[in-house]
Amino acid sequence: MKPIIGLALSNRVKSKKIYSVINNDYIKAVQKAGGIPILIPFSDNIENIKEYTNKLQGIIFTGGEDISPLFYNEEPRKEVQCIIEERDRFELELFKEVYEKKIPILGICRGLQLINIALGGNLYQDINSQIPNSYGHAPKYTLRSNLYHSVKIEKGSKLFDIFKTEDLKVNSFHHQSIKELGKNLKITANSNDGIVEAIESVDEKFLVAVQWHPENLVEKHGEFLKVFEALINIAKQNII
Q: I need a surface site. Which of 7, 78, 95, 163 has the fewest CB within 10 A?
């Protein structure tokens, strides 16, 4: 049997209608890695969360909008232009549920930031204005399938076990980053300017999160499928 992997959705407004959306690369990566994706739209009905988590063997917290700084007790800087409070609230509760149930978790970009906030950490709301001498992390005109900068992976981490290297080139589409690390987390990769690029749980839970977008790299740079395969291999152990 193949494990069922949840994918958190966002919303888009088009032609005066609201659509639940996800980049199809997430779906293709999960399928290629051997999982069955199930899409999870956010809802005002938090009770729906238990129904979803009862069916999941793994989950991916996906990319998207900035998380409201109010959830980590800060007022928004002017660079914070797009938030969806309902998504933030739903996914923070969803994370709490899957974390307590020890369901394997992969966070991608916003997903990494959500995990950090859920566990008591906070963010630099805007890298360029808050971190002196930082490099580029959010290019406007670069294809999402292109490598953009380097990261250094810590030996002995789950991420090192996945990629089997300390040095990795990644894509990059974020203007925020971790400031204070959440509880029971450790940093497992940084860019050369010191920006946190990956975190994971300090214990044996499979909780791995990266700041880049591996789902967009799978077709052109096949090694990035490994992070999805790692999630799904662990998730298979949850199949009853």
A: 78
